């Protein structure tokens, strides 16, 4: 399947091509044959490699980074049996967050469900992806509630941790807490809008354009990082607290509107 920004229609000319390779436990990928196939299209066959299944951890799984006709092409493995199990948990309102290199916010299990919802099947002879899409769309309300519950409280929690770190002059920890707080803001905004957050890169910018969002979110976010860059950590936390206040008001309004 085609995934990423190109599947979602938000790509720019230099965007990667993300190709998801789904397999079943009963019929795993033949990575030796995959390597042979990749070398036939790669710009530099001699340096082309593909990973074993599981090489990149349980969530990214494995794949390859290729250059094809000057374009960056990423191959990503997914075990469709594991994806289906995670999707069933998400439908029931159960999500997990795990450490994953390349994901400083963490890897949210709902990403796998979002990948299914947004992807464009390129070769799906048994209609496995098509079947799973019917479970991912429309967006499940138990998942919406679970994500809001999971991330809403952490916005302020991260700010409070940043404020504690200011007193200890731990600049790196302040910045890390600020990032985590803002990443949680994005998670809540996506959930409020029944949208899947698949990649934390660019998520805040996209969240600022959603129908239900915080006024001047982009400007406020830039102000947070400007203040941190200037060493004005307390003022940066004040801006984050204002974002948290606005988010709570928005969540309350959206919840009241739905229940009404």
Characterization of the model:
The chain is an alpha+beta fold and 260 residues long. The protein folds into 2 domains: 2-79 and 116-136, no CATH class; 141-259. 55% of the residues lie in helices and 11% in strands. The chain contains 11 helices and 6 strands. The protein has a 4-stranded mixed β-sheet. A two-stranded antiparallel sheet has the order 5-6. The two termini are 40 Å apart. The model has no long low-confidence stretch (mean pLDDT 96).
Overall 3D shape: globular
Strand content: 5-15%
Catalogue the unreliable spans.
none
Mean pLDDT: 96
What is the alpha-carbon Rg in Å? 20 Å
If helices are DSSP runs of H or I spanning 4 or more residues, what is the number of helices? 11
What attributes characterize this protein structure?
globular; 11% strand; 11 helices; two-stranded antiparallel sheet; alpha+beta; four-stranded mixed β-sheet; 260 residues; single chain; 55% helix
Could you provide a short overview of the structure?
The chain is an alpha+beta fold.
What is the secondary structure topology, with strand pairs?
Layout: E1 2-3, H1 4-8, E2 17-23, H2 31-41, H3 57-60, E3 63-68, E4 71-79, H4 80-91, E5 97-98, E6 107-108, H5 110-118, H6 128-136, H7 141-167, H8 171-192, H9 203-207, H10 217-229, H11 233-259
Parallel strand pairs: 2-4
Antiparallel strand pairs: 1-2, 3-4, 5-6
Helix pairs in contact: 4-6, 5-6, 7-8, 7-11, 8-10, 8-11, 10-11
């Amino acid at each position: 399947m085609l995934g990423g920004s190109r599947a979602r229609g938000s790509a720019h000319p230099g965007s990667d091509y993300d190709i998801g390779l789904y397999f079943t436990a009963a019929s795993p990928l033949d990575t030796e044959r995959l390597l042979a196939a990749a070398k036939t299209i790669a710009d530099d066959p001699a340096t082309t490699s593909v990973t074993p299944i599981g090489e990149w951890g349980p969530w990214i799984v494995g794949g390859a980074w290729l250059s094809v006709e000057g374009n960056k092409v990423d191959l990503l493995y997914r075990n469709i049996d594991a994806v289906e199990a995670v999707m069933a948990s998400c439908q029931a309102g159960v999500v997990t967050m795990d450490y994953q290199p390349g994901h400083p916010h963490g890897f949210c299990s709902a990403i796998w469900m979002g990948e299914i919802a947004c992807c464009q099947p390129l070769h799906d002879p048994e209609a496995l992806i098509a079947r799973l899409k019917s479970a991912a769309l429309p967006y499940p309300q138990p998942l919406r509630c679970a994500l809001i519950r999971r991330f809403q409280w952490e916005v302020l929690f991260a700010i409070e941790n940043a404020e504690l770190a200011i007193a200890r002059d731990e600049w790196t920890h302040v910045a890390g807490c600020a990032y985590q707080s803002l990443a949680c803001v994005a998670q809540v905004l996506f959930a409020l809008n029944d949208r899947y957050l698949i990649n934390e890169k660019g998520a805040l910018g996209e969240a600022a354009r959603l129908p239900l969002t915080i006024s001047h979110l982009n400007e406020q976010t830039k102000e947070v990082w400007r203040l941190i860059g200037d060493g004005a950590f307390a003022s940066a936390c004040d801006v984050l607290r204002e974002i948290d206040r606005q988010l709570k008001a928005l969540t309350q309004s959206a919840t009241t509107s739905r229940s009404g």
